[in-house]
Amino acid sequence: MDGIIRTEISPQEARAWLADVIKRERAKIEKLQFLRRFDSLDPLDDLRQDEAARDAWAYLARSGLNAEAPEGASDLLRSTIDLYRRDLASDSRRRIVAREFQDLTGRPASSAFEVVTLMSLLISGKRAAWAGNDTALEPIEALADDLAAQTPSDLLGPEPHCAAPNFPPENAARTPSVVSQPAQDPALDPSLDGVIERLITMKREEGIEEKTLRQYRSFGDLFTLLTGITDIRRVRQADATAFRAALLKIPKSWGKSPKDRTATRDEVMARAAALPADQVGLSTGTINRHLDHLGQVATWAADEGFLIDPRLDPSKLRRKETVRESEKKDAFTPLQLEALFQNPVWTGSATEYFQTRPGKTIYRNGIYWCPLIGAVTGARREEIAGLSPEDIIEVDGIPCISIRETEQRRVKTLSSCRTVPIHVRLIELGFLDHVTKMKRAGHPDLFPDLREPKSGKHGKKLGRRMRQIIDDTLGADGAALSFHSFRHYVQNALEHAAIDDKIIRDIVGHEGRDIHEKTYHKPTPPNLMRPAIDALPLWV
C-alpha cells in the first residue's frame, strides 16, 4: 500500500477509499442475499450469477481491462466481464468515482492519474468483497446463534446464574443447561469425499450392501459438480435448494456413462438442453434419495465434531410423490406370466446362445432357472443370480434356498437374510439335479453362465436377457416390466391369497412394521412357508 505514495493520493486516503469500496460492495451482497430468501425464483441461476460476478472481478483484478477473456470461460462469465469492462471504461463511472472520493475525503481527485488509481483500487475492493460472497450473512447468523444461546427458555426459565426464588443455593451441584459440541478430531478430513468415505466405512460394518454405499459416492460427486462445494462445513440451506433445482435440469441418464465422471457442470447442462423434455430431470424418488444422503452426511459430520450450519435441513426440500409407491413399478399379471413361460427358453431353443429362438432343446441354465425361482419366491435378481450350490440346503426335510451374505453376494439389509422353501414344481423340473451337477463340477456359482467375466457380478447379464425375453414375448405391453416385477407379483399374489402378513414379509425379506416385530418376531419356519409358496402357480 505504501507504494501508492508516489501518486497524489496519500496512503491514508487509499486505505480509506479501499475500505469504503469493500464496505459498500459487501453491503450490496448482503442485501442481495437477504432478498433472495423471499424473492428468488431460481436459486440455481442466482448461484451461477454470483459465481460469474466473483470470477469476473477476480479476472479483471488479475489481468486488467483489455486482456482477452479466459480460455474455456462460459458465455455467462464472458458477458459479465464485458459488462464490467464497459462500465469501468465509461466517463460516467469515472465521474461517479471522483465524486464518491470527494465525499469520502473532502477533496477532489485533481488528476487523471488519481482517477485511474481510484478505479484500480475499486476493482481490487470489489474482487475482495465478492471473494467471500457465499459467507456474506455468516456474521449475522453467528450473532443470531449467540443471542439464541443466551436467551432463556420460556419453558425452563432463565439460566441458573440468573437469581430467582426457590433456586438451589449457588454452591449446589447443577446440571449444565447447554450440551457442548463434540470435540473435533483435527486429523479428520472435512471434505465431502472424506466424510462420505468414513460414513461408508461405518455403514459397511452394519451390513449395508455395496450398491447402496456406491450411491453415497454418486451423491457426493453430483453435489460437488452442481454446487462447486467440496467442504461439508460450507454447505448452507441455499446450497441444498440450488442442488435440488439443478437435479431437475440434468439428464435422467446422468451417471450411466463413463464420460459423466469427468464432465463439467456446463457440459452436463448443455447435454440436457439438447435432450427432449421427457429425458431431463431426475425422478422424485432419486431427488429425495440425494437429499436424504446430504442430510445423513451432514449429521455424520456434525457427530464427528465439525461445525455444520444449524439451519441446514435438506429434509424440508423433499419433493412430494405424485404416484403411490405401489404404482411406481408394474407387477406381472398371471396372464403375462403364463405367456412369458411359453417363450422358447422354457419350451425349446435353437441353441444355448440363441436361447430365445424356437428349437428342440431346453437348456436348463441360469436364464432358465432364475425367472422360475423369481416367480415363486419374489427374491431379488442379485439374490438369485448370485446363489452358490451350498446355498441350497435342507431344513427339517424341506429343500430350501438360503439367502445369506457370502463372498459371492451381499444382501440388501439384515432382514433380507432368510431361508425359503423350494417350490414343488421346481423340484419336479429337476432343479435339485442341477444343484447336484454344479456341486460335482466344483462350480462356486449355481449359475456360472450368468457371471460377468470382468466384474464377476451375476445380476446384470440376467437383467439384459430378461429384458429381451419380456420384449420378445409381451412387446409394448411389457415396457414397464423387469425382473423386479416378479417380486411385486409374488407379494400381490400372496396378499390376495390372504396369507399372513408376517409370512409374506419373511418370504420376500422385508422388515417388520414396528419395533416389536423387528425385535421379537422369529423367522417363519419353512414348513409354514411351504404351503404359501407351493400355492403360487408356475406355468411350465
Automatic annotation (TrEMBL):
Keyword DNA-binding: yes
Disordered as annotated region, ranges: 167-187
MF (Gene Ontology): DNA binding
Domain annotation Core-binding (CB): ranges: 190-302
Spans traversing the lipid bilayer: none
Keywords for the protein's UniProt record, in alphabetical order: DNA integration, DNA recombination, DNA-binding
Keyword DNA-binding: yes
Tyr recombinase domain residues: 327-533
Protein name: Phage integrase family protein
Protein family per UniProt: Belongs to the 'phage' integrase family.
GO biological process terms, semicolon-separated: DNA integration; DNA recombination
Species of the source: Thioclava atlantica
Highest taxon in the source lineage: Bacteria
